[in-house]
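Step 1: inspect the first sequence and its tokens.
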Amino acid sequence: MAKMLGMLVSTSRQASAVARLAQLSLPGRVHIGTAPEPVRRLSSGLTAVDALLDGGMPCGRISEVTGARSSGKTSLLLAILAASTRRGEVVACVDVADALHPASVARAGADLQRILWVRPPTLSAAMRCTELLLQAGGFAVVVLDLGGPLPGRLRGHFWPRLLHAAEHSHTALIVLAPHRVAGSFAALSLTLRLHRPLWLRGLWPLFEGFQTVAALVRNKLGMPGQKTVIRVRESCSFPEPAFTSTNHEHDSRSAFTSTIHEHDPQ
């Protein structure tokens, strides 16, 4: 009898704890007494980037890719679009700055027939379009590209709504911005920083591309703080980078031809 009363008290306390947590309106899901389901990942098609992100961009979550102009954000976007459409998936891109170049997307290897390109007139319209796309479902990834300088103050109430819609549709929502914008609602934040330009040696040196450092500054699903150095060629979407840890970099040998190959970071 005492054992049954103890179980009832324990169950009552657990229900009370769940009710209190529900009142807090915390982002994400709260699991009591059970292990959460593993998060499915969306591969970027780049081995080192996927390794940095524990398999790729998390589905049903918000991921941020931040950095200044010419840091490699668009190149990474093209790589993700190409990898997703090659797998037969449908993707959407909400382009606030109207900067997406269809010819570059096609050259990166993406199937334009599987990409929904939305060019909203305002930031508020872009946020609403993103929410509608997530609610519609059927997209492996929805990209919200906020472009360069943000046109006005972002409304904080949109982020919990976008996270809720992404969770229910199991869609990977990727936000591109100059700096972090989603706050605690982002499961991970990947910051790109220009490392150095690359030049072809010769009598007249020619610009070949640049190296950029990708740093995982936030990761609610794993270990943050790791880095990878990526070489971006001028004429390609995104090359295969060499994975490096936070404290050291290692040599990599050429593994691909054309515009995709690993490199030896200096």
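Step 2: inspect the second sequence and its tokens, then contrast the two.
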Amino acid sequence: MKIPRREMLGVMTAAAGSALLPASFAGAAEQASAANTAPRETVTGIGGFFFRARDPKALSQWYQDHLGITVIPRQAGDSPWTQQAGPTAFQPFPETTSYFGDSTKQWMLNFRVADLDRMTRQLEAAGIAVTVDPTTYPNGRFAHTHDPEGNPIELWQPMKAGGD
């Protein structure tokens, strides 16, 4: 937990003076203890995903056309892409992982989908190669594809309540 600078200076001053004034150390300890019991602030979700592209305009259009993701609004009245509430996996992988495919890629996007088979058919109809993992895992089903610049994309159909 980050302690505001003024509070930290007060704690340090009280602690430094404790050799001369033993009672001041107890007050500083109580103040530091109270600061450590306050609820921690946490992030509430991913507010954006930004990355470099050789052709940002064309890639933005590809994500909009094939996955329904709109880019940052450019003018008043434009709406940003709003995702549905649901689980979000956040996991660093070893730098030697082969899970992303191309070892030069540092990240992989995982998008939740309601119907993996329907999304796969839609992408394949547009000429986009998709590899569906034949295994159904306890947390759902997965497929893998790439955007036009070779960035890995994982599609995830989470298990519905009741294991369907």
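Step 3: confirm your contrast with the notes below.
The CA atoms of residues 71 and 115 lie 23 Å apart. DSSP finds four helices and four strands in the chain.
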